[in-house]
Design brief:
Distance between the termini: 29 Å
Low-confidence stretches: none
Number of strands: 5
Order of helices and strands: EEHEEEHHHH
Radius of gyration: 15 Å
Number of helices: 5
Structural class: alpha+beta
Oligomer: single chain
Strand order of the largest sheet: 2-1-5-3-4
Bound molecules: FE2/S2 (inorganic) cluster
Helix content: 25-40%
Mean pLDDT: 96
Largest sheet: 5 strands, mixed
Shape: globular
Length: about 150
Amino acid sequence: MAVTVNGRRYREPAPDRLLLSDFLRHRLGLTGTHVGCEHGVCGSCTVHLDGAAVRSCLLLAAQADGTELRTVEGLADGDRLHPLQEAFREHFALQCGFCTPGILMAAVDFLAHNPTPTRREVAEMLSGHLCRCTGYAPIIDAIAAAAEVGAE
Ligand code: FES
Ligand code: FES
């Protein structure tokens, strides 16, 4: 299959049953995309496919053939963190970091559609993500702060 990930073209064989999450991690070495439940529940595997947030554990790699993907590795601009990453760092929202890549990718998509969300809307978006460190409050603070500085 041929796919563009974070602006780079890849041409890799993908067996029919290979999940997109496994393709990204094991074939392309992009291990920032985390796999928790593999059932579409926890959100840690969230990436962007043609600009929309998707659960990569619910897609086959073959379904992404010909698309443009963005993973958490594509958020920072060189050494410059994405404003959402910066906000997570400033608000102590990183914790163990396992769920963070999926939340970041979902939040980027969320803010693109709703640049001035209320805290309740941020919390609703976050309800689609399970964080085992359970510190949701700083994550809401970080996303709200990023919205204030116009992060997308
Ligand atoms: S690993 Fe995909 S939603 Fe949990
Ligand atoms: S930060 Fe640890 S699971 Fe969410």
